[in-house]
Hints:
Elements: H1 15-20, E1 29-33, E2 36-42, E3 54-59, E4 65-67, H2 76-97, H3 101-131, H4 137-205, H5 220-240
Antiparallel strand pairs: 1-2, 2-3, 3-4
Amino acid sequence: MAQAPLVPATWQLPDYFRKRLGSTVGRQRFMEHDGHLLLVMHQVPLAGETTRRGVLFWRDAAGQWQASNGDPGKVAIANLLGKYERALEGYDQQEERAQRSDEYLPLLEGLAPIVRSTRNLHNVLQEARKVFPEIQELIDVRDRAYELSRSAELLNQDARNSMEVAVVRRAEEQALTSARMEQASHRLNTLAAIFFPLATLGAIFGTTLTDNWTWSHSPLPFVLFLITGSLLGILIALFINRK
């Protein structure tokens, strides 16, 4: 898909600005020449987007504003800030719903470029305000951009802290589950150790202790079989559970 030209064909932009603009938007910045002001801004960056989409705001020497995206000149910058605000509101709602660490990762990936864009946007407006102190409308958008930048940074920090808490909580749950499994395995090994001698003796002699032997008519051998196997099992269990 062909990318729209950065500068609209209908603009009578000074050649000074055209020579300093490339085919892509580049970083956010402002330019001034002979009473003209040109603001080079970024659209709201999308998650996973590697190339920034640019928008230009031009104030000519007569004080008339124009925007490359077609918005009315006087409210064009405010409209861009409104898009950033709506994007942050969406991420704020996403942060409230997030519970697990894997739910915070896409949130942080989407917030990171917005944090950088709003910070740079505010810096550009602040510098433009210093160069053009007579442009009153720059004050409102500069202050609004500062609030945006601050909100984005706070939301990003809150999401990062919440993710760290979720990771710690998940680690504790896994550690508890692992401890329970280890305890259950240890108990099973202890039970197996107790009954192992009985099973071994039973495999060797048989639990009937051979019907054609003379001692098979007396219960004493079977009692001795149980006592011996139990004692050996207890000794093995004590050996396994030693400190």
